[in-house]
Amino acid sequence: MELTASLSLVRSEIILSFSALALLLLAAWMDQAGRLISILAVAALGAAAAFTASSLGSGASASAFDGLMVNDAFGNFSKLLIYIAAAVSLTIAPRFLEKAGAMRAEYPVLIVLSCIGMGIMVSATDLISLYIGLELQSLSAYVLASFVRSDGRSAEAGLKYFVLGGLASGMLLFGASLVYGFAGSTSFAAIGLAMDKEVGLGLIFGIVFILSGLAFKISAAPFHMWTPDVYEGAPTPVTAFFASAPKVAAIALLMRIVLEAFGSQVLVWQQIIIAVALMSIIIGAVGAIGQQNLKRLMAYSSINNVGFILIGLATGTEQGIAAMLVYLTIYVAMTLGGFVCLMQLKDKDGTYREEFADIAGLSKTRPALAAAFAIFMFSLAGIPPLFGFWGKLVVFNAAVAAGLLPLAVIGIAASVIGAFYYLKVVKVMYFDDAADVIAESDDKVLVWTGGILAAANSPLGYFAIPVLGVWTAVAAKALF
Amino acid sequence: MIQLVSFYIFASIVIASAAMVIFARNPVHSVLWLIVAFFNAAGLMVLIGAEFIAMLLVIVYVGAVAVLFLFVVMMLDIDFAELRAGFVKNVPLGLLLAVVLAPELVLGIGAYQAGAVTLGTPEAGAATVSAAVPNIEAIGGLLYSKYVFMFETAGLILLVAMVGAIVLTHRKSHGTRGQSISSQVQRRPEDATRNVNQPVGQGIEL
Q1: How many helices and strands (H and E) does chain B possess?
Q2: Nearest-by-CA chain A residue for B146
Q3: Is A474 helix (H, G, I), strand (E, B) or coil?
Q4: Is residue B156 within 8 angstroms of chain A, CB to CB?
């Protein structure tokens, strides 16, 4: 009875596990049916998302498997975001991978398996389930990064990601073992109780190592070095996936462990989070300036945005967490949109272009694409009235309310620096002489996805605020 | 008494074979000595009643890790004589490292003499195991009840590793002859063999 109750609480993971196994079997017989299996995988993600969404508005929370995992509003909100992001990166992929000769059936299967890991990550309330979920997600990601194995850059990205990811997992495990040793338990609740009394040096060492390992996974500075290389080398749909779903999962995991396990001693971790947030914002903004490759630019942009998101965590308040979730949602829409635009940059021979020089004067040859790209860039820069502005506003608002005024001021100053390179993209597209290398896009899926995401990032997105506000508030409450 | 004797036998063999790992000239011999060390360490684990760890040592370390080392050492064509040739050149660096490590050793001994660190107390609800239950049984009881979902997910991780290895390395090879099992099974003796009554002195017709 206990087991059935627990299993029903993790039903979205179970649905996805069975789908992944069934699709893998299907793939064994139908090797070339990558497209069909992609569609089935999107359907499986939709089913899991529907189950998750059904319990979204309620604040109920139930613990499964004797405290290993929890089914609450926070986990469900994050899962929904992850499934949607994964479904989008599945939808946009087939044409690109077919061109690269790598549209194999394993691509959707690996994405679904990665989603199982991410679902476990965001609902983990124990160091063991945390690690298992993280490893399932990371291992699939390493394979996905080098999926186009005929491309040397893709293979390099996979190897780099694998080696550095292994190092980060090692740091995380070392920290977890220290925390287990000094707190006497792997469960977040019990660690929280043990930390109520007194925090010794051993425990602090453990926390620092856990935070370092997780900072690597969310590509926050100073653990961001792998990001530009991996984002540049990995196939573009995979990069879009990396920049959205796994980032949501790792940030949600970081929020949960910091607040549920270490929540009673805010001062121990707050300065680490503040330092990491500031470094990410500044390195993300300054590092992007010299980039010529648009995918590298997006990588620095994601480092920069992770910094802004972490400001919400640094507050340690319910308002800050809700603001983070709002920002995270908007960030997923912005970054996916940016990559969808990047994937439409094909020249007449069908080769994908990703350099600054290629988009010169794009507004004259491809006005709609240039307009959509400009919307995403302005939104990422946080310029009103686009939706990206709202995310930055709520995060800074929470920081000011929590008394972190200097942090908010530095953040705003750095976002002005960051605006430089976003605006540079727009300037090159609108005011430079037309290079005329980009051909008309023949992929209707990309055009439509880009259009929908652009609409979501335009001022139309503000209509979502009432719903988003309620959901994020309920989700944030689940952590306190 | 017999425990004491076997402890000293196991312990001395562990130390001796560990020394041989370092001193053996041939790297293959080093790995073989490492396997001897693992086996005897497993014996020590049995003596303190940790039979599960003993089995892990034998199965995982000897069965998988050490054999993997052996393969790598044998496959890679490393000229160890050449590697050792740089010894004189690297002596200053080695001495420097030794100078750094020596104070750390002193510090470590100091910390050891200052007493053990205080670890956290296990949570109140933690599973307590009676000494009568063998520890394989205790681990199994926990692994297949509380951690059953994690256990299954670990299976999924292994599946990802397998799928990944195949995706990244498997190539459809052209020009090789594949095996067609059904046609092999369907083949009957009368299709393949022929009885010939061969007359003497004439050529054979094939």
Answers
A1: 10, 0
A2: A65
A3: helix
A4: yes
Residues 6+ apart with CB under 8 A from A32: A105
Residues A117 and A135: beta-carbon distance below 8 Å: yes
Domain ranges of chain B: 1-80, 132-170
User: Can you list the alpha helix ranges (DSSP code H) found in A184-293?
Assistant: 188-197, 201-217, 226-233, 236-256, 266-287
Q: Rounded to whole angstroms, how far apart are CA atoms A121 and A144?
A: 19
Nearest Cα to Cα of residue B156 among A25, A245, A136: A136
Which residues of chain B does A3 touch, with a Cβ-Cβ cutoff of 8 Å? Answer: 148
3-state secondary structure of A293: strand
- pLDDT of amino acid B68: 87
More confident residue, A435 or A186: A186
Contacts (Cβ under 8 Å, ≥6 apart) of A321: A255, A259, A312, A313, A475, A476, A479, A480
Which chain B residues are closer than 8 Å to A66 by Cβ? 146
pTM listed for this prediction: 0.89
Domain B1-80, CATH number (from 1.10.10.10, 2.60.40.1240, 1.20.120.1200, 3.40.390.10):
1.20.120.1200
Give CA separation, B127 vs A186, A192, B142, B155, in Å.
13, 19, 9, 24
- Per residue in A456-477, pLDDT (tens digit) is 888 888 888 888 888 888 888 8
Dump pLDDT digits (tens) for A137-174. Answer: 999 999 999 998 888 899 999 999 999 999 999 999 99
Can you tell me whether residue A197 is helix, strand or coil? Answer: helix
Interface of B with A in 102-121 (CB under 8 A): 117-121
The length of chain B is 206
Q: Which residue has the tokens 């929590």?
A: A402
User: Which residues from chain B sit within 8 angstroms of residue A116, using beta carbons?
Assistant: 153, 156
What span, in angstroms and rounded, lies between the C-alpha atoms of A153 and A229?
9
Nearest in space to A94 (alpha carbons), one of A343, A327, A312: A343
- Domain borders along chain A are 265-480
